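Q: what sequence does this backbone want?
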């Protein structure tokens, strides 16, 4: 349930570290819009407190004694469904556990980054507040079954796209909150015979994009990897922009290649990696012969990129409100008049395949 206007956001903190419980409480309790209703030191206690207190959102540690965060999350989604924000370590193991949690129903995650560094503490504080407030207005989604690797082209209800005559050579996809699960759903519907390269930018930290690309590669029929400098965007391949840096695409001979840059090179882009930068540069590199797709996410990253793409003659698809975890990014495109087609999540992958005639 979304808190009514004027009512504070009720938060339950579940973490086996007393330091983290205090840190999270200290950050959230200073905000006049938030109320800490309780805390728990492990998953067993967390499930009990969730049932008793019925919070609006739970911050959930991943690694805990007695019952870990993912097991606790699964029980909560059955016994007292609510929005859960996972607090994850910045490691490959933490990334994999986070993606398991997102598939199990968590609405979002935040990397643990509370160190002696004042900058790191500031980033953690701002991200925690932003994601708690954003998660509360998110759509409580139904947990989708994990899609197995597809060995044959999926069958769609409609066999021909209204964009079938439109020339495209590339696809750019952007997402944020809710994006990891949404992107897997989309890519799993596209067959290995897809004739165009796909570039993805999704807001993730550096340690997460590599494991995420590996996870997608294991679950989809397309070839999927984390992008690196100089990679050529090839037909039937998906490149995932690396976290912690910005990614642009540049024309190189007859093809398009990846260029990654430190965030200091593009200070105007707040979200990392920037969907706007990826989409704009790809549209420029391919002279607009591309399809732009914006999935669920907080904020408006991607709108300017889609706007530029439209001026170049490209075509666009955005996720609809009903299936978006957070409608911010798609909404900005719809309200800005740059969405050619608005589709539910389960139809987007099929439509991408239909555009290419596969």
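A:
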């Amino acid at each position: 349930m979304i808190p009514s206007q004027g009512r504070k956001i009720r938060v339950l903190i579940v973490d086996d570290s007393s330091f983290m419980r205090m840190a999270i409480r200290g950050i959230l309790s200073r905000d006049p819009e938030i109320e800490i209703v309780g805390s728990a030191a492990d998953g067993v206690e967390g499930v009990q407190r969730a049932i008793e207190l019925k919070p609006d959102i739970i911050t959930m540690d991943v690694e805990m004694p007695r019952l870990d965060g993912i097991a606790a999350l699964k029980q909560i989604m059955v016994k007292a469904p609510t929005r859960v924000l996972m607090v994850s370590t910045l490691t490959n193991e933490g990334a994999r556990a986070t993606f398991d949690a997102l598939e199990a129903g968590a609405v979002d995650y935040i990397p643990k980054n509370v160190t002696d560094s004042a900058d790191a503490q500031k980033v953690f504080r701002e991200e925690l507040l932003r994601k708690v407030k954003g998660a509360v207005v998110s759509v409580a989604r139904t947990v989708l079954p994990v899609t197995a690797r597809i060995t044959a082209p999926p069958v769609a209800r409609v066999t021909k796209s209204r964009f079938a005559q439109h020339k495209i050579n590339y696809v750019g996809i952007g997402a944020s909150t809710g994006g990891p699960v949404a992107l897997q759903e989309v890519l799993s519907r596209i067959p290995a015979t897809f004739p165009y390269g796909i570039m993805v930018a999704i807001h993730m930290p550096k340690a997460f994009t590599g494991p995420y690309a590996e996870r997608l590669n294991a679950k989809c029929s397309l070839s999927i990897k984390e992008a690196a400098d100089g990679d050529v965007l090839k037909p039937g391949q998906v490149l995932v922009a690396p976290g912690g840096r910005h990614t642009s695409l540049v024309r190189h001979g007859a093809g398009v290649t990846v260029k990654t840059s430190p965030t200091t090179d593009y200070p105007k882009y707040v979200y990392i990696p920037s969907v706007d930068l990826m989409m704009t540069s790809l549209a420029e590199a391919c002279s607009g012969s591309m399809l732009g797709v914006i999935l669920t996410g907080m904020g408006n990253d991607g709108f300017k990129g889609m706007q530029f793409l439209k001026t170049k003659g490209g075509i666009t698809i955005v996720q609809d409100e009903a299936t978006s975890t957070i409608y911010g990014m798609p909404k900005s495109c719809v309200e800005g008049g740059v969405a050619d087609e608005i589709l539910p999540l389960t139809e987007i992958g099929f439509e991408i395949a239909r555009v290419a005639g596969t």
